[in-house]
Amino acid sequence: MKILNFYIEKRSVNYVVDVDIRGFFDNVDHIWMMEFLKLRISDPNLLRIIGRFLKGGYMEEGKKYNTDKGTPQGGVISPILANVYLHYVLDVWFEKRVRKQCKGQAYIVRYADDFVCCFQSKSEAQQFFHSLKLRLKKFNLEIAEDKTKIIPFGRFAEQNANQQGRNKPATFDFLGFTHYCGKSKQGKFRVKRKSSRKKVQAKLKETKEWLKSNRSKDIHLIMDRFRRSLIGYYNYYCITDNTQNVNNFKDKIEKLLFKWLNRRSQRKSFKWDKFSLFLNKYPLPSPRIKVNIYDLRKEISYIL
Questions:
Q1: Which H or E run contains 108?
Q2: Residue 18: how many CA atoms within 13 Å on its side-chain side?
Q3: pLDDT at 167
Q4: Is pTM beyond 0.85 here?
């Protein structure tokens, strides 16, 4: 996300192609995968082991399922194989073909099967979108049309939105964050991020179900579980511009605790003032920024 932020803010980016590959991990083609691996691996024994891994299948609810395509769910090397596959299908193709054909600037940022592409020209973004469909089809993949879009995004996006009668520029989601156009304290264009609403709602729903099933457990175990869960959540979502959204998430977690701890018996355990005293005794961690998006010391060599 640091690299994506740099491209949009510091380079000439006016359009973003937000792409979703339909069922990527379930549709990786084994023949193409082995061809890609042979480009860098010459040891036939290692290739044979990987081939067996791909066709080894997986167990679910006591039943074995064979796999003639895709990477096995939960397989230890599945993420690595998926990255190898998309390296040749997307990364190399984009650098060797797409960028060279573009008159304007063009960039790709990918993490596993989640990626966005940035373009200076709208026509080149549209041409890339058409070419991408054909490229993925060649390797037995396809775009999820309902989740893929080309949006105006960048320093001129707000101006274009006003001209078209829209209040705000469009947004896009990447790696669990909604990216939107904002401004710095000095009034300059900035890319800002907040936790994706879809991800937040899914996490709250999961938390509700867990509390509903485990509210009668020892209170020390419940609060320890929530402390550890929130620390993990903060480690991922506490980045530049997102602290307030994470604070709001913590407030919703506290309200869920209040609701379901009051249902441990037929008699209510708390009123809100008593619950506040309870949280003083069993405090939940508070969010603070873990990652500064503008610290590019580790990424600068990649960008150059």
A1: strand 106-111
A2: 18
A3: 81
A4: yes
